Amino acid sequence: MQKITQQEIILSAFVEAQNLEKILLDKVREYGKESVDNQIKALLKQIEIMIKNHKEDIKKAQKTMHINSLVKKNMSQEPLDMLQDLLKNLVNIQAFYNETVVNITNPYVRQLFTQMRDDVMRFISILQMEIESLESKPSIPNNTVLNTPEMS
């Protein structure tokens, strides 16, 4: 498996932070529309400003560190690495659906999540077979010819 560089870890953390901040921003805006209390609206506005500042800080850090361009150079993944990464994500999604189906009593939503979990499981199986196939394939030999010194 390809070694993950520090730059890739940092970029991944930045992306995850941006995603979480966006979720929070969406909730803050939604709650702000529903709230009639001015004190709560002011608090939500402060949270919104904090989120915008965080987003700017992340963008500034990425530009300062040139993290996007560094990672793009290093991220030429082999097919095996890509499939293993996808498999890991699919397993996490399957775990989420398994946990969620247990807690939801609404039959429609339960059926929907069960179907989605089954779809994910099908692709997990397909990816596992493909990974096994790639792992068992002989690697492409190096074209460099090694000459052994002649003994006289």
Show unreliable segments: 142-147
Number of helices: 5
Rg, Å, rounded? 24 Å
Helix content: over 70%
Structural class of the secondary structure composition?
mainly alpha
- The helix-strand sequence is HHHHH
Task: Give the count of structural domains.
Answer: 2
- Total beta-strand segments: 0
Biggest sheet statistics? none
Strand content: under 5%
- State the separation between the terminal residues, measured CA to CA: 43 Å
The rough form would be described as flat
Mean pLDDT: 80
Coiled coil: 33-64
Protein name: DUF2383 domain-containing protein
Keywords: Coiled coil
InterPro entries: Ferritin-like
Can you describe this structure?
The chain has 152 residues and is mainly alpha-helical. The protein folds into two domains: 1-75; 77-135. It contains five helices and no strands. Helix 1 (6-34) crosses helix 3. The radius of gyration is 24 Å and the shape is flat.
Blueprint (SSEs and pairs):
Blueprint: H1 6-34, H2 38-65, H3 67-74, H4 79-103, H5 107-136
Helix pairs in contact: 1-2, 1-3, 4-5
Which structural traits does this protein have?
152 residues; mainly alpha; 2 domains; 5 helices; 0% strand; flat
